[in-house]
Structure formats: C-alpha cells, structure tokens
Amino acid sequence: IHSFCKKDDHNKENIFNTINYDVAAKKRKKDLLNNKAKTQYFHQEKWIYVHKGSTKERHGYCTLGEAFNRLDFSSAILDSRRFNYVVRLLELIAKSQLTSLSGIAQKNYMNILEKVVQKVLEDQQNIRLIRELLQTLYTSLCTLVQRVGKSVLVGNINMWVHRMESILHWQQQLNNIQITRPAFKGTTFTDLPLCLQLNIMQRLSDGRDLVSLGQVAPDLQVLSEDRLLWKKLCQYHFTDRQIRKRLILSDKGQLDWKKMYFKLIRCYPRKEQYGDTLQLCRHCHILSWKGTDHPCTANNPETCSTSLSPQEFINLFRF
C-alpha cells in the first residue's frame, strides 16, 4: 500500500506539471497572436462587397473593420501613388473611427502605422505628414483611454497604453531624423534657370512646403515670396467665394496672397488630390484599388468605377 501511494503521488505530480505546461504553452501562443503579431490579416481577394443589409444571398453587412482588413493597405503604402491616400485615411480613422474597428482591425491599423513610420525613417520623406498623423492618433487615444470604463476601446487598457508609448517612441525617432545630403554633385535645383525653378515650385500643393523651400537658400527665399505662386495656390484649393470672404491687403494696397492662404486653410478644408485611389463599382458594389480585377458582370467594368476620397470611403460604412 505504501509503494502504491508513492506511485499515485508521482502520477498526480506528473499530471499537474503537464497541466501547467499546457496552460503556459497556450498563454504564450495567445500572447504571440494578440500582442506580438506584426503581419496584417491576410485574405486572398483584394476587393470587398459593400452592402448595407442582409439578403438571401449574403448575411450581415460590410463593416469598416472588415474593409480595412481585406483591402491590402500594407502593400498600398509601398506604392508612392497610394501612400498619401492611405495616410489620409489613417488620419481620418484616428480622429473619429477607431472605435468602429474590430479588435483585429485595430491591430492591423497599428501594424500598418508602424510600417509607415519605418518607411519614412528609411527614405526620409513625408516626415511632417506622419508627425501630424501620430499627433492626431495620440490625442484621440488620450481621450478614449480616459473613457475606458465605458468600453469604447476593444482590448485591455494596458495594451493601449503600450501602443501609446510606441507612438511617443515613433515621434521621438522622427524628431531625431537628420536629413543627409546626397553624394551626387551634378546639377542641383538652384542651378536651374529661374523659370524652371518657378515651374517646379508651382507643382507644390502645400504652402508649408514653399516656406520650407525658401529657407534653403537666399535666392529661393525670394522666389518663394512670389505673389503669383501664392495666388495660384489659393485658387487651386479654394473657391472664388471663399477667397472673397478672406481678402487681406498688404501695406502697398495689393492682395497679400500668402497671408490669405494661411488664413483660408484655418477656415476651409484644402483640395485633396491623389495619384491612385480606391474605387467603387456602381454595377456590382465592389470596392477595390484601381487596376485590381474583380468579378464584375458589366460589359465595360471600367466605365462603372467611381473614385472615392478617403472621407467618401469612410462614409460608405456609416449606416
């Protein structure tokens, strides 16, 4: 009997150790999936039906989180034509739509944002654009985390605090960027004729870029103050009626287009223009990137596609 009891205790200990091992293994696996996954949710198709109700053929409806998971934003940020579009979409979601995303969509959002930051750190482009995005997201999270008792965010509060710490770290990395001068010693921008310099500067759609360019060299400072540049910039972004409401005269009695521009952007949204956008097929209600094949039954699918701005994309899911 004594030997049997010893054997039984040994078996119980083995069973207890096995249970502990299984629990620990499951916990590690869960932590890996929930907190350490760095890849976007993968789906074979790169398009999605946008439907707002249940039918006999389709149950449920399409959500913003589902669309965000399936439209391949991870690849889109690597395309220069789509980069600004995706960043603007991330900014709009950060302002008001974070709570509309599912748990996996929120995780994908943060993973895509991390890839965006890494891309900017590598190529040293669009730094100000990403700084503004991170600041918008951090401000929104500060507000939402304070209301955690109302269950406005999916997931553990500690996870979101960790994500906020990551955002602060990314902001610090962007602030520490030192722009390296290229080794190329050929023709530079200032070596071009003045007419070509002005022609290039007219392609800039953000007045802050003109101001930054004028700080590079004294000659560029003079060009960046050209009244015609700022006049075209105002006329590009704003209507004649909006401009007439915000007229500002200089000391010489002329319209001060530069001051008018910065006053107008505080009052009205600027015109948005993107190299490539998401498109909605009016015939089959499929949302996809331009050039993505989808099972459309129209005779000429290209004529059925409508380009969507980032705000129009979000509006599709406001039921």
TrEMBL record:
InterPro entries: F-box-like_dom_sf (IPR036047), FBX25/32 (IPR040394)
Subcellular location, record wording: Cytoplasm; Nucleus
Cellular component terms (Gene Ontology): cytoplasm; nucleus; SCF ubiquitin ligase complex
Keyword set, alphabetical order: Cytoplasm, Nucleus, Ubl conjugation pathway
Example GO biological process: protein ubiquitination
Main location (coarse class): cytoplasm
Involved pathway(s): Protein modification; protein ubiquitination
Assembly, per entry: Part of the SCF (SKP1-CUL1-F-box) E3 ubiquitin-protein ligase complex SCF(FBXO32) formed of CUL1, SKP1, RBX1 and FBXO32.
Role description: Substrate recognition component of a SCF (SKP1-CUL1-F-box protein) E3 ubiquitin-protein ligase complex which mediates the ubiquitination and subsequent proteasomal degradation of target proteins. Probably recognizes and binds to phosphorylated target proteins during skeletal muscle atrophy. Recognizes TERF1.
Protein name: F-box only protein 32
Originating organism: Oreocharis arfaki (tit berrypecker)
